[in-house]
């Protein structure tokens, strides 16, 4: 249970930092709205890295099964969607907006750059968190961090097809739900993203 408590504390800290960053950049610096994309990408990547830790080594080191990883992924996606309304944190969604001519080229380039930087900072923060080795799960992940291996359990062609199919399904559903109520859009997208990640 201590592994789950450490992970929950990590998630709460990431959410707290994200809320503060979102409020600061959205309200006090309206010209720097692309920095909200940085915060959104940071939150998504940081939470996803911890979910991956639970999924990869949680059952061996923390007695946390795949059900905990899926539940944490669903909760983090849902909380992200509620907190970061109007901000994607995802380069493919930003590029979709550019192709639909909802955003300009300069703002799209700034947003994608901020998203890549946010994901990189999330990797650095997660690495520092794992180095604290608060649980056995994080100690193992810290050791695995320096090892370069693929997490793909299928051939590269199957992986590309699965990613393309998942992205296509998500974007089609996203476009259909774009003008719907938040109460409908957030849970459907969260369930869909969780299912795609699990599949």
TrEMBL record:
- Keyword terms: Membrane, Transmembrane, Transmembrane helix
| Cellular component per GO, a single term | membrane
Q: Does the keyword S-adenosyl-L-methionine apply?
A: no
Database matches in InterPro entries: AQP11/12_channel (IPR051883), Aquaporin-like (IPR023271), Aquaporin_12 (IPR023265), MIP (IPR000425)
From which domain of life does this come?
A: Eukaryota
Q: How does it sit in the membrane?
A: Multi-pass membrane protein
Which cell locations does it reside in?
Membrane
Q: Where are the transmembrane segments?
A: 7-26, 63-84, 104-130, 151-176
| Keyword Transmembrane appears in the UniProt entry | yes
Protein name, as recorded: Aquaporin
Gene source species: Cirrhinus mrigala
